[in-house]
Every structure is written in C-alpha cells, then in structure tokens.
Design a protein that fits this description.
Layout: H1 12-22, H2 26-43, H3 52-90, H4 95-101, H5 106-114, H6 118-122, H7 130-158, E1 163-171, E2 177-185, E3 191-193, E4 196-198, E5 203-204, H8 210-236
Antiparallel strand pairs: 1-2, 2-5, 3-4
Helix pairs in contact: 2-3, 2-8, 3-4, 3-7, 3-8, 5-7, 7-8
C-alpha cells in the first residue's frame, strides 16, 4: 500500500503510480458475493422467523442492489481500459486522473460494437491468435449487450426514482396467475386512457435470475485485471507490485 499523505504535497510520479496501484474493481465483486450470501440466508430462513411477504421484499431489494453493482462494473471496466489506453497514447502516467475524468461507458461499448479489434487493444493484448482475439471480442460484446439491455434499470434504481422493487402478477402460457418479484420501470410518461393507466412491460425478475448478473460482474472484474496487468508495466515501466 502506497503511503500517500492526505491533504499534502506529493511527488507527481509517486502519486500517479501509488493511486494506480491501489485502484481495483474486485472489492465490488466481493460485495456482490456478500450480498448473495445474505440473499441465500434470507431465502432459506424459516417462515416462523420472518413473515413470507417481508422476506420477499428483502429479497427484491437485495437482488436490486446486486444487479445495480453488476451494471456499475460495466462502467468501471470501461474506465480502466480507456484510462490506460490514454496513458499509453499520451506517453504519461496520469491513469488515475483519466479515471477521474471518465464520464460514462456508452462510447466505449459503441466503439467495441463497431470495431471488434478494439477489444484486444483495450486490454493491452498486443499479439494474439485469431481464436484468442475472437474470445476477447465475444466477452466484451456480451458485456456490452447486457449493459444495453439492462442499463435503464440501473440508472432508474440507483440514480433516479423510476425503477423500483415490486411484485407483479403475471399470466403463464397456461393462463394461470403467478407473482414475480424484481425491478420495474415506471413508464414515463404514463399512458392514459380515460380513467385508466397502462402499467407497461418493463420488468425484470431479479430475484430468480441473479446468476446472470453475478457472471456479468465476474467478467467485468476479470477483464479489468487482464487490462491492468498488461497495461500497468507499459505505463509505469515495471510490473505492478
């Protein structure tokens, strides 16, 4: 751990490398794993310990937090890859400064969708076989697709008030009614017809589908570590301690 003093003057090279060395994404994955354990504990809880409905609301909120962290990691991955690339292209060590100026990952994933070869560049894979390059491209493409599909629920839940944990009544193909818990996007604006409003169809069952969001978080962290391990030596002249 670098000894970087708070509210003090520090040599720029020491500051830049020390901050880059401490920057990591895997703690967020550890938080997701902790939330998953709590989710399972609550799910397995004896019904005499907590009313079933109260337990379901807890599961819905926990699942929403896990989904939000997974989607947040897609931006974190983009920030890591973009910032190291800027260091390399500008021949500087300003990784943490570039990170601090990073806004939002949409442009990064749009570039990947238009130029698949950018995936290898993004994690510093200078020489690769065709099979290896294709595998990296597919991993990034999958993350980008997941981000595009679920980004509105993330922003609505974490940065607005228009995505909310909720229980909805659904009809099965057999015509039977069932309840599903998850994140629901409140229509904006609401569709009105006379004295009725339409509920819309923007709902994801987060409670029953956490595995896919855990995989998303794991892929983001894994690729960020690959990028860091390859790009750090190019920026700072030696391997990361």
């Amino acid at each position: 751990m670098s000894a970087i003093g708070y509210n003090a003057w520090v040599e720029e090279d020491v500051y830049m490398e020390g901050m880059a060395r401490m920057h990591k994404l895997d703690p967020k994955l550890h938080i997701i794993e902790t939330l998953l354990k709590e989710f399972q504990r609550l799910k397995d809880m004896d019904e005499t310990s907590m009313p079933a409905v109260q337990r379901q609301w807890g599961l819905a909120e926990l699942s929403g937090q896990i989904v939000a962290l997974a989607l947040e990691l897609t931006d974190d991955l983009a920030a890591v890859c973009t910032s190291y690339l800027k260091c390399i292209r500008n021949h500087d060590m300003r990784f943490i400064e570039w990170v601090s100026k990073f806004n939002e990952g949409r442009e990064f994933y749009e570039t990947l969708s238009k130029d698949p070869s950018y995936a290898c560049e993004a994690i510093g894979l200078d020489k690769s076989s065709e099979a290896e390059a294709q595998a990296i491209e597919e991993r990034f493409r999958w993350i980008g697709d997941m981000r595009n599909q679920f980004w509105r629920w993330y922003t609505g839940y974490k940065h607005g008030q228009y995505a909310t944990p909720i229980v909805l009544t659904m009809k099965t193909q057999e015509g039977e009614l069932r309840q599903e818990w998850g994140l629901y996007l409140i229509p904006r604006p609401l569709r009105r017809q006379g004295n009725e409003v339409h509920t819309g169809d923007r709902f994801i069952n987060t409670v029953d589908n956490l595995g896919i969001f855990r995989k998303l978080a794991m892929e983001c962290v894994s690729l960020s570590i690959e990028a860091r391990d390859r790009q750090y030596p190019k920026v700072f002249g030696h391997d990361r301690p």
